[in-house]
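Margin note: ligand = s-citryldethia Coenzyme A.
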Amino acid sequence: MSKDTLTITDNRTGRTYEVPIESGTVRAMDLRSIKVSDEDFGLMSYDPGYMNTASCKSTITFTDGDKGILRYRGYPIEQLAQHSSFLEVAYLLYFGTLPEPDEFVRWDHGIRYHTMIHEGIKQFLNGFRYDAHPMGILVSTVAALATFYPESKKVFDADVRRIQFYRLVAKMPTLAAFAYRHRMGMPYVYPDNSLGYAENFLNMTFHGSEPSSTRPPDFEHSPVLARALDTLFLLHADHEQNCSTSSIRMVGSAQTDPYTAVSAAAAALYGPLHGGANEAVLRMLKEIGSTAGVPEYVKQVKAGERKLFGFGHRVYKSYDPRARVIKTCADKVFEVMGRNPLIDVAIELERIALEDEYFIKRKLYPNVDFYSGLIYEAIGFPTEMFPVLFAIPRTPGWYSQWQEHLTDPDQKLARPRQIYLGETVRDVPRRDG
Ligand code: SDX
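Resulting structure:
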């Protein structure tokens, strides 16, 4: 019977070591006993980008990159997209189970009555230039919420954590909508507690917008749009240990309050390689302009001169299951708002890429960001709002992962080591005079 251990022979000393294998991993700390002398610090693992490092144990989200599987608490994302809602999924991520009807009524009521933000936040908003990037505004204002709820520092009090969870899930759309209205120079539209989560956000954002050829009257109350946006939110709710979630876990390990920790996660999400990719995809599609421009752009990508934003993923080496569902949302939104002609460029880009050896060899497939921006643009969001539309729904995922990290007895303050390649010790030159 094979043992769940790894036998390591250190050829520098001829010594062998046996380290246990647990859940397909070895503990990095077990390497420290491998030394060449008693003064030796011992072996460490070196893993830039954490390509092959498990930072935590989690029961929240499971992905299988080769099979294109994504499950929240065991439920396949495709089934949740079809049968559930964003608020139900937010509850699922945090509490671990889908809410019973009476539980959902209480949860939904709690969210609706925490959507308001302190009037003082408007002072911060007015301090930003009109053209400030809304993610810069969101990162700042969500951190500022910590100053209005100082009790949130009691991170080991489960009741305190729960009320902050309600507040963050409820207030992120309000902060986002206010950031948009500030940019447009339009008056803020306060939350309307009679509306569902997605419709309330659409109303706070677009109420009073002038109808146009692509904006039917009262589009912000379209049930089709609200359902499509709710599904998009649901698909973005969590994704195990991505860059922004790992960031909130690292910041949370210092026992920082959850608002400031969410702000750190949003800051990580802002980057164009992560949640900022949906914004970069739209800029890329607009630059390509038409299907005729696709071959030249693909040629530049293959020459290493450009990146195909919305393609590739650290985990998915097959089609991102979320991209498939998002593509179906696009058709429903286009029925209401008119077809975004850039979808033809995206479809042609996908067609060529999926046939081309360069992308096949590197297992580059469309990811969650490839089609989402087309929908956001069709609804009427400016490109700069796209990462904000990622941060809103990722908040319950970040928060659930933050809580799991904080309450995991295995975890402690995150403090990685390094390989020092700098100067050896040297004296400061004496400068007389
Ligand atoms: C998200 O982790 C998550 O879960 C994130 C996320 C979530 O829900 O939280 O799923 C959300 O962030 C999705 C990813 C959005 N980002 C983009 O669309 C930006 C474009 N994608 C790439 O930057 C890239 O694919 C990454 C960053 C997403 C992943 O890159 P990896 O795993 O670090 O792989 P790599 O950069 O080492 O690339 C391997 C090869 C390289 O070629 P070679 O050096 O071997 O010749 O593939 C190439 C890369 O140059 N490559 C690309 C490419 N992505 C990888 N070439 C062109 N275009 C791309 N998009």
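The pocket of s-citryldethia Coenzyme A is lined by residues 239, 242, 273-275, 277, 301, 307-315, 362, 364, 367-369 (CB under 6 Å).
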